[in-house]
Specification:
seven-stranded mixed sheet, 979 residues, Cytochrome Bc1 Complex, Chain A, domain 1, disordered C terminus, alpha+beta, 4 domains, disordered N terminus
Length: 979
């Protein structure tokens, strides 16, 4: 069952609440009796085909059926978000189904189906979905992998008519696409643009990885993106031949999960897909092969292919894998119990590897993970990031920890710790079952189909797990650990920035050499750490203000020490509590020379510890609890955040408050963060996107040094003492705002707040030398700043940006600007992608900092070929100029405002939406009022208003430009420099 057969995944939850008049109460799943009572449509066979040859309990909320033509479907009623239906159409064919001459066809077909089909004219798909309220790229999307192609639609406002229309359009796309020569001519350049944007060092690593680890199998040569030569040779006849072989009813599954009547959906599936008939007999899937060891390999340690890849701008890494043939299995309870034991074994190993890294191993990080890859191999991967040139020392350290795990059984304490962690991961979906969105349920079923497994209800998963726990003896976990490292062949790859550091022979020998077991990082028996044993934050604080905000059920509290709280118990969100702590001054509170410590703080502030709790103790005290400690730096505030449970809320609040009251300053996390920052820096130069990630914010802020990515030399000069000085000031100065939204007992939460945040000392004001509440923007120019990258010669990026504004008083205008940027995006996509094929995913976005009175921007960017950079600037200018000169027409505007309406309406069904919208409201109460107008602000406008906004902000004389070109390329544009 896919819920537990792979790495444990925690839920990304949404929950229904009501603010907008248009948002109805959610409709949750029907009872089994009501589903069973509805008769199946004529010509449909209802049967649980997913559970054939499985004794895993069937999730009865799914209704399974099959049409006479062999096409299967699965339907489920789910009310999260309300009125949405998530539709997935999975074709059981991907790049591994291609012939040599067809490489890239599976992915090309994905594009062609959106281009034109039975009910959609050329280029009509995107506008049509937008009119139905679906945003292209998020609500409508598709993916092609080696083993399947999936078409995805999250249909908002899933009324009977829009659901019928969507099923009609999707059926036309899948069963009757227009595979014309002209359409192929239009879409191949877009696919090649996507290939180009994915190119460079990352693509070379992916290609080398496939060739090494899957040597001798089709997967070694079959990337879904394909090859330029086969794509350029594609014809209507050759593409249709691939389509007709694999796009067949028996290879297709339609999945629908949403706020819909299952019987109605079944009828629509039958209505629109029953007439689909395929010609000829179905073909068996091609053989995906098996991993085979070289004849010369030692049977006791079968090391096979190894490869050393020299990439000057990438950090060193070593990956080796123990490969086994992938075998189709019956997805039984016993099979899943074995997977659970595998999970425990891997978790113990990974915890030991992390402890070794923290204790001063030769590697920055290392991880073990088992995975079934594309129904081609069952492999255990070991990945290692060395701290420096001594890759062999790093590999030896990791292999030594693994060798001990292969020789000696784990302790009962180690097993109990991981059992408790997994218990929480399986219990949380049970508690939050009502919050699981239909899109997640649909995607889970898609994944189950792909790996040939089932799905199970959260209660059944938890019950099976608890029944299995007594089987997790040290001896069984040892046996499963050994199985994970037993296979047909072991293969390895080393990435290094320097030629001559290693050879394939030396890498192979490193794996052949016996590993000396290292038992230093086994978990010693230790008494558990309890929160009630930790020192108190201080005397419980007094509440001086307590009043409703007037918005929904949100309350505001203020403590005598100045800490402000906004809290909202939402009983419709069972089992989930979101906590956010906003404090200090963010970027504006740093000095110009603090850039290295800003970067290090993002990685090391939390792991530096609190009070008596270092990294190991923080891990231990969180065992069996759902706790987190996320950290972000914003323009004018810092944020701690976590998703927790009602039972863990008080402890989560203590953990956050203790970071202020008793911060710990362990040096090792800082040293490790320094190593990570230094390793990462050079990789930015491998691609245009990497350069943008490194420098765009810095340049857009008029080279404010606080936003600059520090160099390895600057990171090297940073010290633990300097780190403490910078971050101690950040933790002690500026206001604190706490937000708690979700399923919690109000009185218990208030008591916990009094003992934690209410007990903190009174906060000091922000330092007088803090930067003013504003942000700069570079001087306008029609000559671009030019940066260079070290990637492929056919890769470039172009950016054009206009300044806007900032501050909460302009929030309505900032929302209207979102409409304008979506208009711009649609036009830029049409021009640069659909017509010219010059860029795969050009985009336009708007920023508007609410906490600063300036600093907002409208930014358009695209990745493209260097020769197309001037064309991008010309096109962007023409679009901006036309928006200034001519108002958009009503249909164009509706294709933006309707998806925005649906996005806001869906988002407003979650308390997390309001938590985000109300950040800073305790010091800026106007934000409470502005929430009430959010739907209007994002959706109600006129063509004239859009034209006026464009005239105010998009003038050519206000823009700033940036080009990122390959090193050594540029001509006239290369005369400017950003450095």
């Amino acid at each position: 069952m896919s819920f537990i057969s792979r790495a444990v995944r925690l839920l990304a939850c949404t929950a229904p609440v009501a603010l907008l008049a248009a948002t109805p109460a959610p409709a949750f799943a029907q009872s089994d009796a009501s589903v069973a009572a509805a008769p199946a449509p004529q010509g449909v066979k209802r049967w649980p085909w997913l559970y054939e040859n499985s004794d895993v309990p069937q999730d009865k909320e799914w209704i399974f059926g099959e049409l006479k033509n062999g096409m299967r479907y699965a339907v489920r009623q789910n009310g999260v978000p309300p009125q949405q239906a998530s539709i997935r159409i999975r074709i059981d064919a991907g790049s591994l189904n291609e012939k040599d001459s067809e490489q890239g066809y599976a992915h090309l077909l994905e594009h062609l189906l959106f281009r034109q089909s039975k009910y959609l004219g050329d280029g009509e798909a995107i506008p049509t979905w937008q009119r139905l309220g679906a945003s292209f790229g998020s609500d409508t999307n598709a993916e092609t992998t080696p083993t399947h192609t999936v078409y995805k639609l999250d249909l908002p406002n899933a009324s009977p008519s829009s659901l019928n229309e969507s099923m009609k359009l999707l059926s036309g796309m899948v069963t009757a696409p227009t595979l014309s020569e002209q359409n192929i001519k239009s879409d191949v350049p877009i696919v090649l643009a996507e290939m180009r944007e994915r190119g460079g060092a990352s693509m070379r690593v992916q290609d080398a990885t496939r060739r090494v680890f899957y040597a001798g199998q089709p997967l070694a040569e079959r990337a879904p993106i394909g090859k330029a030569e086969t794509l350029n040779a594609a014809t209507a006849q050759s593409v249709r031949a691939f389509y007709e072989r694999w796009y067949r009813p028996e290879n297709t599954v339609v999945i629908v999960a949403g706020d819909v009547d299952p019987a109605r959906v079944e009828a629509l599936v039958a209505k629109w897909f029953s007439g689909w008939k395929a010609s000829g007999e179905p073909l068996p899937a091609p053989s995906f092969g098996e991993p085979v060891a070289p004849a010369s390999a030692n049977p006791d340690n079968p090391v096979g292919e190894t490869h050393v890849l020299v990439e000057p701008d990438l950090p060193r890494s070593v990956t080796y894998a123990v490969m086994r043939p992938w075998k189709q299995v019956n997805d039984t309870i016993v099979y899943n119990q074995g997977l659970m034991a595998d999970t425990i074994a891997q978790a113990i190993l990974n915890r030991r590897l992390e402890s070794k890294a923290r204790a001063g191993g030769n590697y920055l990080m290392a991880q073990v993970g088992q995975d079934d890859i594309s129904r081609s191999v069952d492999a255990t991967f070991v990945s290692v990031t060395p701290l420096g040139p001594d890759w062999q020392g790093a590999l030896d350290d990791v292999r030594a920890v693994i060798a001990d795990a292969l020789q000696n059984a784990p302790t009962e304490d180690e097993i109990a710790r991981e059992v408790a962690e997994i218990e929480v991961a399986f219990q949380t979906p049970v508690e939050q079952r009502r919050l699981l969105p239909g899109s997640r349920l649909a995607d889970d079923l898609v994944n189950a189909l792909d790996i040939r497994e089932t799905v199970a209800a959260p209660e059944d998963v938890l019950r099976i797990y608890r029944d299995t726990v007594p089987q997790f003896s040290p001896e069984r976990i040892l046996r499963h650990t050994r199985q994970l490292f037993t296979g047909t062949v072991t293969r390895a790859m080393l990435i290094t920035p320097k030629d001559g550091e290693a050879t394939e022979a030396s890498l192979r020998q490193a794996l052949l050499d016996p590993a000396v077991a290292d038992d230093s990082v086994r978990l010693a028996a230790a008494e558990p750490i309890e929160f009630d044993e930790l020192p108190a934050i201080g005397a419980p604080g007094a509440i001086v203000t307590h009043a409703p905000t007037g918005l929904l059920g949100i309350e505001r509290l203020e403590f005598a020490n100045g800490v402000n709280v906004m809290m909202w118990p939402v009983m419709e969100e069972p089992g989930r509590v979101a906590v956010k702590v906003r404090f200090g001054g963010g970027y504006r509170s740093f000095a110009p020379g603090d850039a290295p410590y800003i970067a290090l703080g993002e990685m090391a502030l939390v792991s530096a510890g609190v009070g008596p709790l270092g990294q190991e103790e923080l891990d231990r005290i969180a065992t069996g609890r759902k706790m987190a400690f996320e950290f972000e730096i914003d323009d004018a505030a810092f944020e701690f955040s976590a998703d927790t449970r009602p039972a863990d809320l008080a402890d989560q609040l203590y953990l956050f408050a203790a970071k202020f009251a008793m911060p710990r300053w362990d040096e090792n996390p800082v040293k490790r963060a320094k190593a990570a920052a230094e390793l990462q820096y050079e990789s930015y130069a491998t691609s245009p996107q990497g350069v943008l990630n490194r420098d765009l914010k810095y340049l857009q802020r008029d080279r404010d040094p606080r936003f600059r990515t520090p160099t390895p030399q600057e990171i090297e000069q940073a010290t633990p003492e300097g780190f403490k000085q910078v971050w101690q000031r950040a933790l002690t100065h500026g206001p604190i705002e706490v937000q708690i939204y979700g399923d919690f007992d109000r009185d218990a939460a208030v008591a916990a707040l009094q003992k934690t945040f209410g007990a903190l000392p009174e906060r000091q004001p922000l330092p007088s030398d803090a930067a003013p509440a504003s942000a700069g923007f570079p001087e306008a120019s029609d000559t671009p700043v030019v940066l260079t990258h070290n990637g492929d010669a056919n890769q470039a990026a172009a950016v054009i940006s206009w300044p806007t504004g900032g501050g909460s008083m302009g929030i309505t205008e900032s929302r209207q600007l979102e409409i304008l940027t979506q208009l711009f995006t649609n036009r830029l996509m049409e021009a640069m992608r659909e017509k010219l094929g010059a860029s795969y995913a050009p985009q336009v976005y708007s920023t508007w900092p609410l906490d600063l009175d300036s600093g907002g921007t409208i930014t358009a960017l695209a990745q493209l070929e260097p020769a197309a950079v001037p064309m991008f600037f010309t096109t962007a200018n023409e679009i901006a100029g036309d928006l200034i000169a001519n108002p958009p027409n009503a249909d164009e505007l509706a294709r933006v405002t309707e998806p925005l309406r649906q996005q806001i309406t869906r988002a407003a069904t979650s308390s997390a939406f309001f938590m985000y919208q109300l950040e800073g409201a305790t010091t800026d109460p106007t934000r409470l009022d502005k929430v009430r107008s959010i739907l209007t602000d994002y959706t109600v406008t006129t063509p004239a208003q859009m034209q006026e906004l464009a005239s105010r902000y998009l003038g050519e004389d206000k823009s700033w430009r940036l080009a990122v070109l390959p090193k050594g390329v540029g001509g006239a544009m290369a005369s400017a420099s950003a450095r």
